[in-house]
Structure formats: structure tokens, C-alpha cells
Write a structure and sequence with these properties.
Length: 205
């Protein structure tokens, strides 16, 4: 029977702890993702003009989507409402594009989308898969813009964000996790990102 050296035991225990913590963190991210819909606007290109146009499209679509989602009390309800108005959101985006002198096409869709760890004003979200309202302008080859359309965290003031999130179904623990109330939240999310990379690497072995 093999006798383990101290460093081998320490390494094994550390690996076990990392696996347990990583699995728990992934479950927290998944639970959080099931309560949210992100907004993902992708510009035609990285030119200054296309990036400026992206922000104008964002503003118009965000205003319309926020009004549509007023009173929605779950991600499922929010998804249903957004699905119903996808053609209208495309038309809104197209009108902004045309008014600014461009003839780009635009596509609106609801889709599972992979996001990196992202910091916003007063809160952050861990990397992972989220349902997203995606607006792809033209070639969709430019930098994107991300936020959260449900709950309406994009438009909530930082001081109002916790109350807005809780009204939409997030728990106090969820709010603590994504805000600065939970000291080191960004570091924890970066660690989760590293955990996902490690998990993918192990899966290839």
C-alpha cells in the first residue's frame, strides 16, 4: 500500500477543496442565470461611427424592452414578453440605423450566450451562460455592449439596484453575491472563471 507524502496529501486536499468550491460556485452562477436576461448589442464593426451607432440602438431598444418588461415577475414571463416583441425590437433598431444614414441589417433574438465576468456600476456578474436579448447590427464584427435587461439593472441607479433586483425575484443572498456588500466579489468571480477554464482543460484530458 502506497504511503502518501505530506506534500502529496496537501496537494490532493487542495485539489478536492478546489473541486468542491468550484462546483458550489458554478451552481450559484447557474441559479443566478436562471433569474436574469442579459442585453447584448453587437456593433457592425469597431469603427468610431459603428460604435456610436451601437449605443444609439442600445438606448432605443433598452427603453422599449424596459417598458415591455415592466411588472414581469420571473425570467420565464420576461422571456415570453420579449419573444413576442422581437420583430418590433428589430424594427426599432432598424429605424435608428436608417435615421443615422446607414443601411445595415439587424437581427434580434433570445439565445443562451456565454459571458465573461463583467463589472457594472455597483455590481458584477460571474462568467457563464445566460439567456440574452441579442441585437446584432450588420456584420456583427464589432465590440459588444452588455448589461442586464431583466431585472432592469441597466437603468436602475446604483442605490436602487438591490431593491430592483429583489422585486424581480432575486434573493438577498443573490444581491449580496453580486454587489459590493460581499467583499471580494469580483475576485471570487475571477476565481470562478479560472475554475471553468480548469474544468474545460481537465475535460480535454
Amino acid at each position: 500500500m502506497k504511503r502518501w507524502k505530506k506534500w502529496e496529501l496537501a496537494l490532493l486536499l487542495g485539489l478536492c477543496a478546489a473541486l468542491i468550491w468550484g462546483a458550489w460556485s458554478a451552481q450559484r452562477q447557474d441559479a443566478l442565470a436562471r433569474k436574469m436576461i442579459r442585453l447584448h448589442v453587437i456593433a457592425n464593426s469597431d469603427s468610431a461611427e459603428d460604435q456610436a451607432l451601437k449605443l444609439k440602438v442600445r438606448d432605443a431598444v433598452l427603453e422599449q424592452a424596459t417598458e415591455t418588461l415592466r411588472g414581469a415577475d420571473s425570467q420565464a414571463e420576461a422571456s415570453r414578453r420579449l419573444t413576442d416583441i422581437l420583430p418590433e425590437l428589430e424594427e426599432t433598431a432598424r429605424a435608428v440605423i436608417t435615421a443615422n444614414g446607414y443601411d445595415y441589417g439587424v437581427r434580434a433574438e433570445l439565445a443562451e450566450t456565454s459571458f465573461p465576468t463583467k463589472e457594472y456600476d455597483g455590481f458584477a456578474l460571474p462568467a457563464g451562460e445566460y439567456m440574452a436579448l441579442r441585437l446584432v447590427i450588420g456584420e456583427g464584427a464589432g465590440q459588444n455592449w452588455w448589461c442586464v435587461v431583466y431585472p432592469p439593472l441597466c437603468t436602475a441607479a446604483a442605490t436602487d439596484m438591490p431593491e430592483t433586483a429583489i422585486r424581480a425575484g432575486l434573493s438577498g443572498d443573490d444581491v449580496s453575491l453580486i454587489t459590493e456588500e460581499d467583499a471580494g466579489y469580483v475576485l471570487k468571480f475571477r476565481s470562478l472563471e479560472l475554475w471553468e477554464q480548469l474544468r474545460q482543460w481537465l475535460g480535454k484530458k
